[in-house]
């Protein structure tokens, strides 16, 4: 499990594309703020609000990345990587929606579970998938 208080941006996560890195930092900040909220009583309404905000921002970020993929020809030149990248975005969104739809009286435990998933996903996705896109874009510029 990722330590709640120590999940911060590191240079290992940088793609070298400013807009992507900035959005990743914002997403991490949102996850950290949600973790801080777990120290308080978490109601179904708060859980729904937090997951809605995270999902909305993640979708906005995914659209940014996918627009850059189109703009720089990533789909044409690296179709397998692009397909995997987009698939991971869709899987992430589905996981968050499933968590939101399955909320019950164990809200705090569910929130911890989804935030742990988010932390692990962000770390894995940035270091293994987004870095490829970042390198591709940097090479095109």
Task: Describe this entry's structure for a reader.
It contains 5 helices and no strands. By secondary structure, the protein is an all-alpha fold. Helix 2 (44-71) packs parallel to helix 5 (107-140) and helix 4 (79-101) packs antiparallel against helix 5 (107-140). It is elongated.
In brief:
With 141 residues, the chain is an all-alpha fold.
Q: Write down the overall mean pLDDT.
A: 82
User: Order of helices and strands, N to C?
Assistant: HHHHH
Structural class: mainly alpha
Q: Measured on Cα atoms, how large is the radius of gyration?
A: 16 Å
Number of strands: 0
Number of helices: 5
Q: In angstroms, what separates the terminal alpha carbons?
A: 38 Å
Strand content: under 5%
How helical, in percent, are the residues?
over 70%
Q: What does the main sheet amount to?
A: none
Low-confidence parts: none
Shape: elongated
Which keywords apply here?
141 residues, mainly alpha, 77% helix
Question: Mind sketching the topology for me?
Answer:
Layout: H1 18-37, H2 44-71, H3 74-77, H4 79-101, H5 107-140
């Amino acid at each position: 499990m990722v330590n709640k208080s120590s999940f911060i941006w590191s240079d290992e996560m940088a793609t070298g594309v400013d807009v992507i890195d900035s959005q990743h930092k914002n997403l991490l900040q949102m996850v950290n703020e949600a973790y801080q909220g777990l120290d308080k009583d978490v109601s179904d309404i708060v859980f729904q609000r937090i997951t809605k905000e995270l999902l909305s921002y993640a979708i906005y970020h995914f659209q940014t990345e996918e627009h850059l993929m189109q703009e720089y020809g990533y789909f044409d030149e690296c179709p397998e990587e692009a397909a995997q990248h987009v698939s991971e975005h869709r899987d992430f969104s589905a996981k968050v929606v499933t968590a939101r739809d399955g909320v019950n009286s164990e809200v705090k435990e569910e929130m911890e579970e989804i935030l742990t998933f988010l932390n692990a996903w962000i770390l894995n996705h940035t270091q293994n998938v987004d870095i490829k896109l970042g390198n591709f874009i940097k090479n095109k510029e």
